[in-house]
Amino acid sequence: MRRRSSSAAGSCHPPPGTNQVVEADAATLFSALANHTVVVAFTVSWCALCRGYQPEFARVAEAYEGLVEARSKTPLVFATVNVDDGENRRLAKTFGVTSAPFVTVLRHKRWYIMDARGEVTVRAPKRYTGYLGAAPTAAHVAAVTGVAGAFEADGFGSDESAFAGASSKDEDSKAATTDAPTDAPADAAIGATTDTQATRRSKRPLRPYVEELTGANVAAYVADATKNVLVEFYAPWCGHCKRFEPFYYEVGAAFADVEDTRIARVDVDRYRDVAAAFDVSGLPSLQLFPKGYKSRGLHFKSAERRPADIVAFVKSPQVWLVEAQVADMPEWHCVAWLEAKGVLREGTVSESVGLEGDLDEGAVAPADENARRDDDAAAAAMFADAHAWARRGKWLEAMETLVCLAHTKALRNTGLGSSPAMWNFLDNAKLHVENPGLVSLNALAGDDSVSDFANRSAEALVAAALEEAARVNPDGGSWESFGGADGSREEREASGFDWEAWEAFTGRQAGDAPELEGGDADAMTRT
Fold first, then answer.
1. How many CB atoms are located within 10 Å of the residue 126 CB?
2. Considering only Cβ atoms within 10 Å of each terminal Cβ, which end of the chain, N or C, has fewer?
């Protein structure tokens, strides 16, 4: 099991108190069970996981304060039992506790079995085995007890989403509720509420770490202009998805108290039209819909899917966003766009290629006559401007310029545009945008590995890049024809430059999904 780290996200509430959690011994626990359903956590004082879970458990108790279970007509009681104590060890043994934290729901009059002779036997409790965080625990409690209202009501069914998420995938919840006798009232079932409960909400509601969306609400959910929304597209039969699930909850925990960010997922096996609408071709697929860009999802492309990397992606999606914005534009529009906002010096590129038209009207194109165009000069001017931005530590502007160069075919096909220096520069710019804390070029000027780039003029770097490009491609073939007679694989590998990686980058469109791992390329076609 995993727990939410208390340092994962800054809470927007005061530190949760423990006034709603009872420190119980045997007498206290059985006294509470006489009239209440008790959610109990068996812990030990030396267990770091138990200590970390304590404030999360208290937060669940606070969310359920004032909410009444329909079956017992009483509030839920939340208790902890420290099994370090000798008497409490016997209590733990009675309930089959062998490790900590052991969290379970002991339902009123359902935690024991009484035979015909009146002898009582304690039922083996169903242990909660999910993610040890406040929201997942609360969803489990809701699924077992049928007590709703602990979650936010945000117009997208957060309460129902938490219910559905727990009841659909938590086998412990199903087992804990399906053992009810046939004469049990209907409102004892998962998700059942009375009219009173339906209108009663928590004073301190929780938000699901991961919202379960449907085909009916996913489009509106991601379109919320006030929220950064990360969505996982998954299927229940997908092995990669199952293995990734606990890690995705870690991502959700990191943003549990961040008001402008939502983490969600949708079952594309159940909602097939969602897969088509969002261009899902691999599972699991992660797409980010940042506040400033809702045209389409930005795909998280790292195959490792480490939670820390996904969190960084959500917090700082500039690389993906710039690529998507440029790829969305008709060719050459990015040049006019960058000149209009001052990233490129006005006229340095547009005049070299005779750029004509109006960006606002959506009609920008270079001159048709070759005599009026100097694509090499335009590429050199963009490289020089990107170098100037990088020297000032303005890596986002440098990256915007280089991405525009890479996605403009005529400029990409120049010697400079397809040079190893261009590729390395772009890669370096993306690295700095993703990691703002990296040391600047000027600070590293004494390092031989970067001193040339940091200290030499843009003109000298352009000349060196062209010289390297001429060495790699001595016949001066165009970018498309570079291969075969113009350069064998051995010659390209000998150049020390990964041409395959370069071609893959320049050839793909922003938003392309990575291929599935493990040979599941045809996963979406399964029935």
1. 21
2. C
Q: Note the pLDDT tens digit of each residue in 476-516.
A: 555 444 433 334 444 444 444 444 544 444 444 433 433 33
288 DSSP assignment: E
In a domain, 449, yes or no: yes
Q: Say which amino acid occupies 107.
A: R
Whether residue 470 lies inside any domain: the answer is yes
Which segments of the chain have a pLDDT < 50? Answer: 1-18, 157, 159-160, 163-165, 167-199, 441-451, 479-499, 501-527
Chain-centroid distance of CA 59 in Å reads 24
Distance CA 187, CA 194 (A): 7
pTM of the model: 0.60
The Cα 437–Cα 440 span in angstroms is 9
| pLDDT tens, residue by residue, 132-191 | 999 999 999 999 999 988 888 765 545 445 544 454 444 444 434 333 333 333 223 333
Same domain flag for 465 and 349: yes
CA atoms of 228 and 102, how far apart (whole Å): 35
Q: What is the pLDDT of residues 411-423, one digit of tens each?
A: 988 888 888 888 8
180: in domain: yes
154 and 245 fall within a common domain = no
Residues β-bridged to residue 3: 132
Residue 382 · residue 460 · CB < 8 Å: no
3-state DSSP assignment of residue 401: helix
Coil, strand or helix at 82: strand
Tokens read off for 506? 């320049």
Q: Is 281 exposed, middle or buried (0-12, 13-18, 19+ CB in 10 A)?
A: middle
Domain boundary among 315, 338, 369: 315
Residue with tokens 């530590």: 393
Q: Which whole-number Å values give the CA distances from 482 to 15, 81, 472, 492, in the listed order?
A: 62, 71, 10, 10
DSSP state of 300: P
Do 304 and 400 sit in the same domain of this protein? no
> Is the preceding omega at residue 330 within 30 degrees of 0, hence cis?
no
| CATH value at residue 169 | 3.40.30.10
